[in-house]
Amino acid sequence: MSSMDSTPSANRAHIAFFGLRNAGKSTLVNAFCNQQIAIVSDVAGTTTDPVSKAMEILPLGPCLVTDTAGLDDEGELGAMRVEKTLKVLESTDIAVWVRNAEALSDERTLKNEELWKNRFLDACQRRKVTVLEYGRGDSVEAIKEKIAAIKLEEDPGLLDGLVSDGDRVTLVCPIDESAPKGRMILPQVQVLRAALDRHCIVRVCQVEEFTDDGSLTITDSQAFGRIKAANLTSFSILFARQKGDLEELRRGLDAVKALKDGDRVLIAEACTHHRQCNDIGSTKIPKAVTKLSGGKKLEFAFASGKEFDLAPDGKPVALVVHCGGCMLNRRAMLSRIDRCRNAGVPIVNYGLLLHAVLSKSALASGEAAQ
Question: pLDDT tens, 321-333?
Fold first, then answer.
């Protein structure tokens, strides 16, 4: 089954297994998935990078199961492995702590286990992550049944509060040099599905064919300024609204206008792709930031995928401009926003930024995408 036919990882419940080295995490993951997902050996530190497997657990639904490196890994490489493990926690909905069997017979190992477990539980509590515990020899089916019975909070719908069942919706999907060949991009597909789930009548067109019929119009953010519609938003703004904190992202617009010469701006995208000429992240967004800042001389840094560092190369940033986050689950996007808030770094969304620059409507002051 191709990735276009399956549930995206961002829409799956994220289940991750944590513990110390040699606790039996990989063995459990393999038994849990009934497949050889992770390499298993008696050598401590065998798992070096998070390993994930998409699967279905009923009645919970589509899930992403992840094995991680031991939290007690040592040395310079070990510290890097632990850092990656903690990044997994940022997107985890259900965490399973795998007890170290040796801790039952060795006092020193037991103290080490309790130390790391308490740190882990504190981190989970701060993030409101559901935690279960498994010990070597426990029933794999029992832990699977416990996970399947957990009722996770559902994400807000992409169109909640914007349309009623049976309404008309218009999707404006430009086909330009950045459009993938022979298919639509994931945000367009997911918004289309959300509209169909509400039995809406959906019209799909390009910019040149658009006429305003009074319906909710959802456009690619780069087309703001070319689309004149009374009820207008963008795919990026809808995802920012669903995945994160739209009010916090909107406040970031004021920070763009307050940038000073020499400030550093991080352009962050949740996906990884080959950047082309006139790419939105590396070309259009920096131009938009520069314009909205009043022409300030700025320095730009770029991040994609799971990388999200507020001080890349050791140099802190003054602003983050983030994509809609369709490749992240809500927990991961909110975690990024919280990291920015705690560090005092404003964050704004692609769609909000482009609307403020490319159109003259009052979106930036809060009249759209409510």
Answer: 999 999 999 999 9
Residue 356 one-letter amino acid: A
Peptide bond into 156 cis (omega under 30): no
Element (H, E) at 85: helix 75-89
- 114 phi/psi in degrees, rounded to 5: -65, -40
**pTM score, two decimals?**
0.86
Range of the domain at 298: 243-365
Who's near 132: CB < 8 A, 6+ residues apart? 94, 95, 96, 97, 143, 146, 147
Query: Is residue 281 in some structural domain?
Result: yes
Query: Which of 219, 235, 236, 237 is CA-nearest to residue 227?
Result: 219
Same domain, 16 and 139: yes
User: Per-residue pLDDT tens for 271-287?
Assistant: 875 555 467 888 899 99
3-state secondary structure of 95: strand
Residue 179: HSE in the Cβ half-sphere, 13 Å Cα cutoff: 13
Asked whether residue 328 is assigned to any structural domain, the reply reads yes
Residue closest to 19 by CA, chosen among 131, 127, 150: 131
**What is the CB neighbour count within 10 angstroms for residue 319?**
22
